From TrEMBL:
<dbReference type="InterPro" id="IPR036291">
    <property type="entry name" value="NAD(P)-bd_dom_sf"/>
</dbReference>
<dbReference type="InterPro" id="IPR013708">
    <property type="entry name" value="Shikimate_DH-bd_N"/>
</dbReference>
<protein>
    <recommendedName>
        <fullName>Shikimate dehydrogenase substrate binding N-terminal domain-containing protein</fullName>
    </recommendedName>
</protein>
<dbReference type="InterPro" id="IPR046346">
    <property type="entry name" value="Aminoacid_DH-like_N_sf"/>
</dbReference>
<dbReference type="GO" id="GO:0004764">
    <property type="term" value="F:shikimate 3-dehydrogenase (NADP+) activity"/>
</dbReference>
<dbReference type="GO" id="GO:0019632">
    <property type="term" value="P:shikimate metabolic process"/>
</dbReference>
<dbReference type="GO" id="GO:0009423">
    <property type="term" value="P:chorismate biosynthetic process"/>
</dbReference>
<feature type="domain" description="Shikimate dehydrogenase substrate binding N-terminal">
    <location>
        <begin position="28"/>
        <end position="107"/>
    </location>
</feature>
<dbReference type="Pfam" id="PF08501">
    <property type="entry name" value="Shikimate_dh_N"/>
</dbReference>
<dbReference type="InterPro" id="IPR022893">
    <property type="entry name" value="Shikimate_DH_fam"/>
</dbReference>
Amino acid sequence: MDLLKQSYTHGSSPLPPNATATPYHVYLFGGNISKSLSPLLHSILFRANSASWSFHLTETTDSEIFRKRLQDKTCIGTTITMPNKVSFGLLLDGLTEEARMIGAVNTSFIRLDKNGQRRHIGTNTDCIGIRDSILYRMPHAATAAKARPSMVIGGGGAARSAIFALWKWFGSTEIYIANRLEAEVDALMTFFQSTAPDITLKYLTTVEEAATCETPYIVVGTIPNNIPREPGEITCRKICDTILRRKDKGIVLDMCYLPSPVTYLYTNGKGNGWTVIPGTEALVRVCIAQQILWLEKDVNQQGVDDAMSAIWKAVNQRQSGPKASKI
């Protein structure tokens, strides 16, 4: 079931016939979001669809501010980032399967119930961004990955989205986890035992395990591009290096894109013959999925191309600027 069709299981469209000419607003809620690239990308995508809509940053963790925005009839949707992905999701009227199983919401959209009342539905488009960025580069990936293991680097919220995507759309038989802290992996495994018990997770703790396990077809990185210093970080790096040096090759997607999308994982994967995908592509695909839910139509290809070009230019400018830093 495609994204838009699935959204209508939560209600009917709230958009009037002249929706693109109506001055609707979308809001991003989170902490430390002043340098977010979402306004740049969404303004490009809105313009490409001839929508006179606007995108606003709301730097807050206050749930009452979030509630008030939802009550505004000109609010057509929201994006939600850290640290609000769990707490704000609880304030919405319904959740999609992705949001329930991942346990975090990064997007809300509106559908009308049978009485015409607005319902704010929470979903997770991070997993869709992962899926679509892989399939755009490698259309056969869903077939090639089926019945093979995958690997996720990290143990936080982005790792949850990656695990769900690899299980749901790529049919991974087993998903390896490489992470610096065992406690984070334990929490991850406990969580998915309650929401998706069919997912098989394996924590790789040694280089020897990485050298002898079946080579994963898809590797998704979800951690910052920092130099490893602590013992757990060093071991995690060695495990990843060992996997990438294996004879069999597949796909590497690194979600990290700041201060540069050309990360250690990206460079190492490319150098070892893997197909590599930068985090900038995943971010654009996340935004495209959000636009489809709000505008209720596909984004045209020119808008996608413009967004891809703009984000590369933006991150390169930040990297070369005098105050470039990671977010």
